[in-house]
Amino acid sequence: MSTAAASLTGTRPLLRVALRHEGRLLAPWVLVVTLLSASSVVVYPFVFPDLAARRALAGAVEANPALGLVFGPAFDLTTVDGFNAWRTLALGGFFVALGAVLSVTRTTRGQEDSGQAELLASGVMGRSARLLTGVAVALVGSLAAGVVAGVVTGLCGGAWEASLLLGATYTASGWMFAAVAAVTAQLGSDARTANALAVGTLGTLFLARGFCVSLDAPVWTVRANPLGWMLETRPASGDHWAPLLPAVAFTVVVVTVGFALQARRDVGQGAIAQRPGPARGRVRGPLLLALRLNRAPILTWAVAFHLLGLVFGYFTTSITDLVAGSTGVQQVLASGATTPEQLTGAVVRTLLSLVGIIAAVPGIQIVLRVRGEELEGRVEPLLAGALPRARYYASHVAVALTVVTGYLVGAGVVVGLMAARADLTVGLVDVVEQTLATVPAVWTVVAVAVAVVGARPVVSLAAWGALVASFLLTLLGPTLGLDDLVLGISPFWHVPDTTAPSPDRSGLGWLALVTAVLVAVGFVGFRRRDLAR
Amino acid sequence: MGGPVVDVRGLRKSFGRFRALDGLDLRVEAGHVHGFLGPNGAGKSTTIRVLLGLLRADGGTVRLLGGDPWRDVVALHRRLAYVPGDVSLWPGMTGGEAIDLLGALRGGLDERRRAEMVERFELDPTKRGRQYSKGNRQKVALVAALASDVELLVLDEPTSGLDPLMENVFQEVLAEARSRGTTVLLSSHALAEVETLADRISIVRDGRVVRSGTLADLRGQTRTTIHATLTRPLPVPAPAVLRDVHVDGARITAHVETPRIGEALAVLTVHGIRSLTVAPPSLESLFLRLYGDDGTPAR
Predict the structure, then answer these.
(1) How is chain A split into domains, by residue range?
(2) Which of A229, A525, B79, B205 is a plausible cystine mate for A454, CB 3.0–4.6 Å?
(3) Distance from CA of B128 to the nearest CA of A (A)
(4) What is the pTM of this model?
(5) What is the CATH T-level fold of the domain B6-218, as seen in this structure?
(6) Which residues, at least 6 apart from B62, have a Cβ–Cβ distance to it below 8 Å?
């Protein structure tokens, strides 16, 4: 047997088990993108029945360039498929890529952390079999997501070629990031680090694409970005299949790099060796422990939010140009329905809501860490000391809420400073005021995690559900013409526009109340429930 | 102080439909080392987790150091130290840092003893959590627990990963703790360890205690094994005092009820003893008998 074949021995039985196990974990991702894509096809004709309504939508989208950061350019919003391509191309690809990253890390680095890998490696199994299995599962899962989403969208009434092409971009995004995760799983010394590296890459490229496209940056900036290739396919407004080829080539090359790296490293070790640490500890209480446990992500996210502030700040300074360049917006302004000040205020509010939603991610992570530590059996010895449960939980919750506030305000100040220099209708004070008004909404989202982890930890994932719901409702809800009652589910809907002449701040009171109730539920639950082993 | 350190009566705890503890009684007197034995899944760790206030009892009464383990968590935990069976450390934190954190949460460590324990257990406190082997992780938890001055040590299979040398150190250290008057609840599978250290033993099975008492009490309930080589063969059938007689030429093996050893020896002497071993019932044989294939504790 050749060495290459020998290093893959045992892949088949491993793959069978992995597909069965991972299949259940990948299914939700397939479901999410399918719903995302099919729902736009189903809903569009009802919400935008005629050309006038569709033109109005196009004008509204053009008037709020903040939407372009997430969704990319709207090539054609007057057809069902064009609308679907705008609404779901970027997001669907993002979700599938995220699912692929988590899956690859779980089946490779995650197994090494838990010791399963060692057990498997001692069997008749080649060195590369585990990585191959992990990558293969993610490739199959991404393919399933693309095919199911494409076919279901077609069945729901989408044009077949556009729907299938859209599905193919989801698959391609998933493939590329499965490959990226195959590399980061070799670099990071544990699953957490590997995930952070891969998801960080995904987030950066995603944001870079939205940024470059929205600001009409030179074409090469989009072409240099693997996620930019997905835009070039232009489903429903050109249907180009060719840009998918470089995506496949990218996948092959990066996966090869992953295998090369994997062949050179020891099982359970990363690229960076561990050095001896201090023999004595300074962490003597739960608050310091919470900070210490989350030190790396807190610092990483702090850097990320400063960059995010710069990106969004730069974006804000260009609002005037972007709005001036849009004929649709000029018409709206000329009709007197709104003023440039209101328009800028709305964009700033959307941008800061977006920052707030992103800021909730580390907050939720910190709260979920409580559950992770509990399952690892590391909370038990702490609570066997003279440490009340409430104090332990409060330390983590306090860190989570403080950190998200810091991130949001930090990014808001950066945006404000840049806006102030750019001679806009909004200044530093306006932006900071709007930022502070957004803080309670972020707390509410984090508080959902507090309630869930405290009272019903089995459904911890619901914490992410609250985040995704807020995101979709905040960014997509208004363009879909949803009822205020439904939109109100998202805490960000209650954030007042502080630049308005007489802003209605009653929403903040409600948010504070809901947050307090959720946190109370979490603490009572954490005090009363059994601790998992 | 007065009164037992641990007093559990009729403790019940279910997880969904699975009944983990079904009317468990346990009493640990002050100053005793109490061995807590039972097969895997019998309910030992569940009991300990109820005693630590990590799980809430479904029924029965539980008193720990005179308090309620669910309600008086903080006050009680200042007076006890705990070593879990499966120690999980923070991956990025060194063993030394973990010891200091756990000690600080208990209200401080005895510095002199901390240094002594690190020395005696030959622990390298500068390694990170994820670099330690199972045995070394256990040493970290042991040092953290034994370096603090507490009234009660709760140890859940504390030596399952230790090498024989370290197990020896553990036994010495535990004996010292006992001589200081510390009460110990020791759940273990190392029967020899329990035999040497424990004043009293409780054997748990299917969520209830099936035997409890001193080692002598428990031994009294079981049989002694006799191996002998005789010059003249035993009559058939053998005298009633000898049970389960197995004859192999001149050599015989038989069981005798412990109080009737003298009687049995008298019978054997008549047949001329050339060699003789009388093995006291080991905890192991007791254990095996209680958890035999028939599934019911022998009466």
Answers:
(1) 1-268, 284-533
(2) A525
(3) 7
(4) 0.79
(5) Rossmann fold (3.40.50)
(6) B7, B8, B9, B11, B50, B51, B68, B69, B70
